[in-house]
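Protocol step 4 of 6: record predicted structures for both targets in the notebook before any analysis. Target 1:
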Amino acid sequence: MLYFKLKFFLFYILLLVLNVNYVVTQFITASIIGSTVLGGWFGWDTVKDNTFCLLPKVECCNDKHVPYNLSRLKVSLSQKMFGQPLVNELVNILVAHKESIKDVNRQNKKALVISLHGWSGVGKNYAASMIADAIYAKGMQSRFVKMFMGKKDFDCSDMEKSKKDLMATINLIVSSCPTSLIIFDEIHDMCPTILDTIKPMLDHHHAVDGIDYRNSIFIFISNIGGPQIATNLLELYDKGIKRNEVEFHHFEPIIRRTSYYTGGFEKSSTIAQHLIDHYIPFLPLEQHHVEMCALAEFRALGVLQPTEEMMIDALSIITYGPSEDQPIFANNGCKRFVKHIPYVIQKYKPKEEL
């Protein structure tokens, strides 16, 4: 009981320090008092959810702030991701992970580790942000989401310090929320051995240094395997296999083999010890996928029916490969539309609207 009163007192002081307005303070204080009385029945998490976690700028690791709304992810992928049949399987992968979080009888045995591969501009970062938006109320801005960048965060100058800082940062995030999301981007530019630092967090352990990582998610993003995915896709086309008929097993061996000798994955135990659960190939985009992508960008900016001239102008920046003799796939996907389409919209505005 004394422990409970102490927590109540600390929360009240925190409210005063945060200078919460009078009405909110009175409401939350009443909630605290009521929850304190009932604390013996409902437990501290319930008290916290109904008091401190109601503050506007507070983010807690509960269902309100971590809703895990995978129906939202399914809609986002169907409406905003084009030509990526295997990427849509992320929904099923995450649903399986979520169900093991909620069901005490089938707990996760390890963290979920997903590796996204493909050319630049095919939607890898976009997919990662969609996952964050679905799981966390604040999306990528959540304090339970952390993105590391290849060269920026791991420049190879002081590897030991980088590894210690990496461990400390991830430990802090996951200890505050077991369902945290850790993203490593630009692994093709990362120093080898960095990923081996987090190997214990990805493996089949109940806890590492007292922290349970089994309900967390790790996402790796890289351009590694992009050319090989494109070549393999062409070979599948030659065999009569359609784009929407491809399976993970068509790409995983070549992705694993290429990754093991490249960038941050070089000789990494994450690959050698099979700690990556899913290798997701992002297929190179064809012309009709790029057109769908451009149209979606126009509509997101309020232009529901761009003219033919506007579409031609938008698509003029796209080049196709893998060679001049095979102009099948867009070399940079949809990446350049983010800046080019706003320019096109401005360019074709009537003069009086300028």
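Target 2:
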Amino acid sequence: MAVRMRDIAKDMGVSLMTVSKALRDHSDVARETRRRIQERARELRYQPNLIARSLASKRSFLIGLTIPDIMNSFFAEVAKGIEGKLDPLGYQILITNSGENAETELRQIRLLVGRKVDGLIIASAGVHSSGPLVELLTAHNSRYVLIDRMIPNAKANFVGVKDEEIGAMATEHLIDQGCERIAHLRGRMVSTGRGRLRGYQRALAKHKLKVPPEYIVSAAHEDSTGYDAMQLLLQLKPRPDGVFCYNDAVAIGAMKAILEAGLDVPRDIAVVGAGDLHNGDMLRVPVSTINQSSFQIGQAAAELLLRCMESETPQKRVFFPPRLVVRASSLRHPSSPDGAPPTSRKGRGTPPR
């Protein structure tokens, strides 16, 4: 016969409520009491009745996580942060992968809403206005938090970074390394792609550097598309001497094209990505990047969603500061701590971290 919570309560001489709270790791129960109850539950091989729990609490204890690229380690780190916050509270995470397709995303979220998830965390593939997605979420009174990408015109909770700062920081670093002809392999025109492009253009304008329009090439978000886009840049006269890539996957593809052309990274062309790809420091040419605190984004999104599910809370936006991670792909001046020659930083304020 299956062990019930009331059996654990009787066995340990505590109330049913105490057992319930201890198994949910609730702070109302003393730490030592929680430990003893949880240990006894494991000994008795207690398995919670999820259906009964859902009926009693009127919750499904399911959270939907919709991401655009399941192969991108940035989103894997985000998911790890979310799981670390929600799993101890008894929530299960249902992950869907939109493949950067807004129609697929809408269909997947409609299914998650139909599964009666308690909340949603969404990195949207939508390029234009909020439209059908926000209408769907509003119609079902869904609790949700956006991560990484903002949806135009949507008044929603958000956790991420300011992408314009990413673009500016990466481009400033390339300028500090002596690059004068800096190209940009841009992403899709979601908020991340638009913001990073603006930051790139802002940094060039600040230093009065002009580049031809063909120095900005659409490269989507994969290594294969980064490779193809870099091939176009290599045909230009003069070719760029620095490239800021939308993300690390694009940067890896770009470096492959550069090396296959018999050129050196970073001496001939310096490269910077974004996202701090897992194992990016173990590549043939370790890739310089912008760290976005992906794990912390996941944790903060989970915490914000929990507050939303508990009560009506004012919409909140949480931004983590981007951080420059300098590696071999852009390091032309290794004598300086941050890779920049001392003279290049004069008049430019605080050097990138």
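Step 5 preliminary note on target 2. The chain has three domains: 5-48, 59-161+294-319, 163-291+323-345. Confidence is low (pLDDT under 50) at residues 340-353.
Proceed to step 6 after PI sign-off.
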